[in-house]
Amino acid sequence: KKLNIGKNVSNKSIASVNNEDFKEVFHLSDISSNSNLTQPDLVFEFDLPRNQSRKTDSTCSSRSSNTHSQCSDNEDTLSANDDSSNEEESSTISSLDSDIEVNSVLFDFPTQVICLECLDGTLDSLLNEENEMDADEWRACLFQIIMMLIIYQKVFHFTHNDLHTNNIMFKKTEKQFLYYRYNQKYYKVPTFGKIFKIIDFGRAIYKYKGRFICSDSYHSKGDAATQYNCEPYFNPKKPRLEPNMSFDLCRLACSLFDYF
């Protein structure tokens, strides 16, 4: 009923919600049998025609026979109908695909992301080039890698644990030299147009602010379960095997030895 402006309306009592009204809504039953619920129409089913023979009243001995003009006319009509039907169904499906947008939002989902700039190639790709690196280029390359490991080890007590020729990449540079200071000595190292970087820290073990960070790859069911035996996945039935910072260069040397 329409109310006039300025008209006083007395308070009306409001009946409380009865739980019985929702009894069937929250009943654990098949959703399709509950008339109080509606399902969003997100799934569409279409019976697409397949390439198969149709049953006809034709007396032709073969589907490709031209023995009777009426057979040919009937088949042309059926073919035209099939084409028209296929076009309509394709148009319908295309329209549905363009109109439907399904968004999925996951809250509090644990995610770990390791990001690095886009690089130009791997050390392994350099090994496969026709123009192999000479001794000076190898010295410059390995010096960069060793200095990276020294810094990581000093700051983070870091072990990479999977350092091979595909986990070392390079970025092209116009800088001719890199300068390092270590143990009160300065080093001027030629780049030969490449700055090398370590990637793939999925198996890395390190410390940060006094906290020991270890990949779950070393879990008993992980892909590196037998590489170490230490906390947080220590198995008291086996000898203790702590991460060793000498392992990375040893692992890299083995991958290079296989090449040479």
TrEMBL record:
Low complexity composition bias: residue spans: 58-72
Any one Gene Ontology molecular-function term assigned to this protein's record: ATP binding
SUPFAM superfamilies with a match to the protein in the record: Protein kinase-like (PK-like)
PROSITE patterns: PROTEIN_KINASE_DOM (PS50011)
Annotated protein name in UniProt: Protein kinase domain-containing protein
Residues in Protein kinase domain copies: 1-260
Region (Disordered): 52-96
GO biological-process terms attached to the record: intracellular signal transduction; mitotic cell cycle
TM stretches of this protein: none
GO CC annotation terms, alphabetical: cytoplasm; nucleus
